[in-house]
Design brief:
The complex is a heterodimer of chains A (285) and B (119). By secondary structure, chain A is of the alpha/beta class. Helices cover 34% and strands 22% of the residues of chain A. Chain A has nine helices and eleven strands. In chain B, helix 7 crosses helix 8. At the A-B interface, helix 8 of A face helix 1, helix 6, helix 7 and helix 8 of B.
C-alpha cells in the first residue's frame, strides 16, 4: 500500500515562474514571496516522494474550448512543457507514472468519478510553476515522476467544492490501495483570491484568504460547503481555482500537521498563498 | 436567465455557456496565436484572418482596434484574450489597467500596495 506523505497547496501564477526563470527572485517586489517559500522548500527537499500527483487547471494551452473536461487525468509516460505563446519555460519535461495513473483511473471510476483521459498533454504554467515552487533548481529532471489531474475552473459551471473534496477523498483511498509506489506527495494549486477581467480586476480578499488558509488545515468541510458562487464572489472569478486545494486536502488524513504557510500580495495580479502539510502518521523528523 | 440567477458578483465576468457560445470563434482565433506561423499570418492581414475564423463584424472590429473591454463583452475569455495581448507584448497588468481605467503603472502600484480590497 502507498502512503501520502505530504500535501502542498500553492498558487501557480505565471509570473512566479517568470521571476525564477529571469533571475529576479531577489528583486524587492519578489523577495518577500520567495522568502516565504524557503521553509517549505527546505522541508520538501528532505522528503522526496516516489511519485507526486499534481492537481491543476490548464489555461488555454493544453486544452481548448472545443472540449472542456470537468475532471481529467494524465496517463502518459512524459508530458511536454507547453509553449504558451512566448516559448517554453526552461524547465525539464515531466516524467509520468502511467501504471500508477491507470490504477488511479480505475479506482476513481469505480467510485463514480468518471475522469477524462489525457494520453497526450502539454503542461502549462499551472503545472510547472507549482513544480518550481517545490523544486527551484531541478537540473535535468524533477525530483520524481508526476501525474497530472486536471480540473475545469475556467468555464462556468465549475465542479462544486464539495465534489472536489469528495474526489480528493476517493483519490486518497485509491492511493492507499496501490501496491507499487511507497510514498506520494500531492499538490493542489491555484488561487488565492484574484480577478483578472472587468471593472473588479485587481480584486483581492485577504480576509477570505486567511480564513481559507486556516480552514484548509483544520476545517476543510467548511470550505467544501461553499458554493461556486460564494467562491467567485469572495475570491474573485479566477479565485475559484481554490477548489483545487480541496482535492489535495481530501486525499490527506482528517488531521494533518501544518509544516508551513505563507501569504503574499501580490504575485502580479494575484494574492499568492502556500500551505504545506505533513500527512505521515508516524513522524520520523 | 435562471441558470445565472444566483450569480451576481458586481463587475465580474463569468465565462458561462451563453458567453462561451457567443465568443467561440473569437476565442478559437486567440488560441491559434500560440503558433508563431499563425501570428505572422495574422499580422500580415488581420481582417482576413478574422474572416477566416468566422468572427462577427463587431468581434472583428474589437480585435482590429484592440478594444479589450469589447472583447470581453463579446464573449472573449480573459485567458484567450491574453494570447492576443501577449502577441502585442502587453501584460496582464496592462489589461487590468484598461479594465479599471488606470495606466499599467498605476495598476501595478495598486497591486503592490495590497491589491483592490474595496471592490
Amino acid at each position: 500500500m502507498s502512503e501520502v506523505i505530504w500535501g502542498l497547496a500553492t498558487s501557480h501564477v505565471p509570473s512566479i515562474g517568470a521571476a525564477m526563470d529571469r533571475g529576479r527572485t531577489a528583486d524587492p517586489a519578489w523577495a518577500p514571496l520567495f522568502e516565504g517559500y524557503r521553509p517549505a522548500r527546505a522541508w520538501l527537499e528532505r522528503h522526496t516522494p516516489d511519485v507526486a500527483i499534481l492537481i491543476y487547471n490548464d489555461h488555454a494551452n493544453g486544452v481548448d474550448l472545443d472540449i472542456v473536461p470537468t475532471f481529467a487525468i494524465g496517463t502518459a509516460e512524459r508530458y511536454r512543457v507547453a509553449d504558451e505563446g512566448f516559448g517554453r519555460r526552461p524547465v525539464p519535461d515531466v516524467v509520468g507514472a502511467p501504471e500508477f495513473s491507470f490504477h488511479l483511473l480505475q479506482q476513481l471510476m469505480d467510485e463514480g468519478f468518471d475522469l477524462t483521459v489525457f494520453q497526450e498533454l502539454d503542461v502549462d504554467h499551472g503545472f510547472t510553476v507549482p513544480l518550481s515552487v517545490w523544486t527551484p533548481d531541478p537540473g535535468d529532471a524533477w525530483p520524481c515522476p508526476v501525474i497530472p489531474i486536471l480540473v475545469n475552473v475556467i468555464r462556468y459551471p465549475q465542479p462544486t467544492a464539495a465534489r472536489c473534496y469528495a474526489l480528493g477523498k476517493a483519490l486518497g483511498r485509491a492511493i492507499a490501495s496501490h501496491q507499487g509506489a511507497r510514498t506520494v506527495g500531492i499538490l493542489g494549486t491555484g488561487g488565492m483570491s484574484h480577478q483578472l477581467a472587468g471593472a473588479r480586476a485587481g480584486f483581492v480578499n485577504p480576509d477570505f484568504d486567511h480564513m481559507f488558509l486556516d480552514a484548509i488545515a483544520n476545517d476543510p468541510e467548511k470550505l467544501a460547503s461553499l458554493s461556486r458562487e460564494d467562491y467567485i464572489r469572495e475570491a474573485g472569478s479566477e479565485g475559484i481555482e481554490l477548489i483545487m486545494w480541496l482535492i489535495m486536502r481530501g486525499a490527506l488524513n482528517e488531521r494533518v500537521r501544518t509544516v508551513h504557510t505563507a501569504y503574499h500580495v501580490p504575485a502580479s495580479n494575484t494574492a499568492a498563498g502556500l500551505a504545506l502539510f505533513d500527512n505521515r502518521t508516524e513522524k520520523t523528523n | 436567465m435562471t441558470s445565472r440567477s444566483r450569480l451576481d458578483p458586481p463587475w465580474t465576468y463569468v465565462f458561462d455557456g451563453p458567453t462561451s457560445l457567443r465568443g467561440h470563434q473569437m476565442n478559437k482565433l486567440f488560441m491559434s496565436l500560440r503558433d508563431a506561423a499563425a501570428r505572422e499570418d495574422f499580422l500580415r492581414d488581420e481582417a482576413t484572418y478574422c474572416r477566416r475564423f468566422g468572427l462577427s463584424e463587431q468581434q472583428a472590429q474589437a480585435v482590429l482596434a484592440r478594444d479589450w473591454q469589447a472583447m470581453l463583452d463579446l464573449g472573449g475569455s480573459i485567458f484567450y484574450i491574453y494570447k492576443l495581448a501577449m502577441m502585442d507584448g502587453l501584460s496582464m497588468q496592462y489589461l487590468g489597467g484598461v479594465f479599471t481605467g488606470m495606466s499599467e503603472a498605476e495598476f501595478k502600484a495598486v497591486m503592490l500596495a495590497g491589491g483592490r480590497t474595496d471592490v
